[in-house]
Amino acid sequence: MADNYLEKHREEYELKKAAFLRKKKHLPKIHQREISRPDDEAL
User: According to the model, what pLDDT value does residue 41 have?
Assistant: First the structure.
């Protein structure tokens, strides 16, 4: 293997991981919305 092979791949991994985490933080959060049912006067 070439010199610094593992170190280079580790650096690439860390950069990809950091980019993924930055992107993940900016995604909109999915909120569970309560479904409010109107009072049905017909019942």
Answer: 65
Residue 12 Ramachandran class (φ > 0 left, ψ -120 to 50 alpha, else beta): alpha
Q: What is the 3-state secondary structure (H, E, C) of 15-43?
A: HHHHHHHHHHHCCCCCCCCCCCCCCCCCC
Two structure tokens written together for 15: 């950069």
Tokens of 1: 């293997």
Q: Is the pTM of this model over 0.90?
A: no
Express each pLDDT in 1-26 by its tens digit. Answer: 567 888 889 999 999 999 998 888 77
- Straight-line distance from the first to the last Cα atom of the chain, in angstroms, rounded to the nearest whole number: 77
